[in-house]
Amino acid sequence: MPLAVFLIFFMLFMHRGSITETLVVMVSVPFSLMGAVWLLWLLDYNLSVAVWVGMIAVAGLAVELGLLMMVYLDIAYRDSLATQHLTTREDLNEVIQNGAGQRIRPMLMTGMALFVGLVPILWSTGSGADVMKRIAAPMVGGVISALVMVLIVFPAVFAIWRGRGLRRVQDTDNTPYPPA
Q1: 58 occurs within a structural domain
Q2: Which domain holds residue 43?
Q3: CA distance 66 to 150
C-alpha cells in the first residue's frame, strides 16, 4: 500500500510538475482511506489481500477526482488572472465557485456509478462473494468520503492555498450601526 501511494504521488508530481499542487491533490487520499476503514470497521472485516486491493483502487480514484477538481479550479484561476479580475478573496471565491461548479455533476456521476455498481456486491451471497465483498467494501466507503472531500474540503484548501497575498474587501460604509 505505501508503495502504491508513493507511485501515485510520483506520477502525479511528474504530470503536474509542482510539489504543492501534488500535495494538495494527495490530500484526498487520506480522506478516502478513512471512509474505507470506517466501512470495514462497520462490516467487521479484517485486513486481507482483497481489502488492500480495494484500498489501492479507491486511493487511485480519490487522486483522479482530486486531479480533475484541481485542473478545473486551476483553469478558472488562471483565466481570472489573465483577465486581471482576481484581486480580492471575494474574486477568488467566485472563481472557485465557477471552477468547482463545472465538476460537480461529473464527479457525482462517477461516485454514484461506482456506488450503485458495488453496493449489490456487498449483498451478494454466491460463489466468490466473500472475496468480492472485501474488495468492494473499501471502495464504497472510500468513494463516499472522497466525494465529500473533493466537493467540499478541496475547494477550501484551494482557497487557502491560492488566497495568500490577496486582499480582503473592506466595508466602505463607515457607520458603526445600521440606520434605524
Answers
A1: yes
A2: 19-162
A3: 6
pLDDT for the residue numbered 38: 92
The pLDDT tens digits for 7-66 are 888 888 888 888 888 888 888 888 888 999 999 899 888 888 989 999 989 988 888 888
Q: Is the dihedral of CA 26, 140, 61, 111 positive or negative?
A: negative
Rounded Cα distance, 36 and 30, in Å: 10
Dihedral (CA of 125, 128, 131, 136) sign: negative
Provide the domain count of the chain: 1
174 in any annotated domain: no
Cell readout for 50 is 482483497
**What is the model's pTM?**
0.79
Number of CB atoms found within 10 A of residue 179's CB = 4
Q: How far apart are CA 21 and CA 12, in angstroms?
A: 9
Which region among 7-21, 72-86, 163-177 has the lowest average model confidence (pLDDT)?
163-177
* 176 in a structural domain: no
- C-alpha pair distances (Å), 46 with each of 49, 95, 144, 164, 171: 10, 44, 20, 44, 56
